[in-house]
C-alpha cells in the first residue's frame, strides 16, 4: 500500500549492465524493488543499462516536434486524419477543444518486429498490434535510433520484470511468456507552455495541469523526463509529491496490471503533470516540457493471472481497451475529423 512518502527513492541498477548478473545482485535488487513498489510505486533508477544518454533522447524528441505540423499530421492516427490507416501507432496533436488541462502532443511506436505471432483481430477498430508509421528519411531520419531505443528499453524492462518475479517468490523466467508479441510503446511527448492568458486557473487553489491524475495500465513505465519538472506523485496522505529531474536517471513506476498480478502487494500510484511555465513563444515546439515514457506491456492475447492464484485472470488486450476509453488521445475531438471511441 502506498505510504506517506515525501520523496522518491533512488535505486542503483548498474549491476544489470553485466552479461550475467551475480546471484547476490539479483537478491539485493529484487528486494530493493519489492520495497519500492510496495510503498511508493515510483523510484529513480540510476546507472541504467542503456547506450542512450538524456541529451540524445531529448534531441530526438525535439527534432520530431519541431517538424512542420503538416508533416506530423501525415503520421496522425485515423481519429485525427481520416485518410490515414494507422489507428494506434503514430502521432496525436494537442486537443484544446476537448481538454484544456491535458495539453500534449505525442508520437508513439511499438516493436520494430513486422509480423506478430498473433495479429490484432480485424474486427477491432483500434489495432493494437499494427506496424509503426514513419515519414520518409528525408523528412525525419531517426527511425533506426528510435527503434533501437525501443529495443534497449524493452530489454531493460524485461530484466526488471525478472527481478520482480524473484521478489514475488517465482522463478526469474516466470513472466517470460507475457512478452510474446509485446505491445510495449515508446512515446515521445511535448507539453507546450501554457499561454499567458491561460496560465492561471479561475480557482486560485487549483493547479494548471498538462496531464490529469491517472495510473498507468501495463506492467512498468520507464520515464525519461527533462529538467523542466512537473511530474507529481500522490502519497497516502493525499499530498502531491514533486518528482523533480535527477540527472541521468530513469523514473520507474508500477502499472495497474502489475499491481493486480502481485496480489496488490505492489501499488500503481496516481500521478499527474503540472503545466510548464508560461512563455510568450508558447507555440514554439522548442519550448515547454518534453518527456519520453516507455510503457512496458505484454502481448494482446496474453492471459494474465495473479501470482498467488487468487482473483480473476484478464486478457491484456481487453484490459488495455477498457483503459483506452478514458485516454484523451482516443476521445472524439470536434476540432478534427474523427470517429468515436466506441468499440475500441
From TrEMBL:
Gene3D superfamilies assigned to the protein according to its UniProt record, in alphabetical order: B-lactam Antibiotic, Isopenicillin N Synthase, Chain
GO MF annotations, alphabetized: metal ion binding; oxidoreductase activity
Superkingdom field: Eukaryota
Species of provenance: Trematosphaeria pertusa
Alphabetical GO biological process terms: small molecule biosynthetic process
Family: Belongs to the iron/ascorbate-dependent oxidoreductase family.
Domain Fe2OG dioxygenase: 181-298
Full protein name: Putative gibberellin 20-oxidase
Keyword Oxidoreductase on entry: yes
Alphabetized UniProt keyword annotations: Iron, Metal-binding, Oxidoreductase
SUPFAM superfamilies reported for this sequence: Clavaminate synthase-like
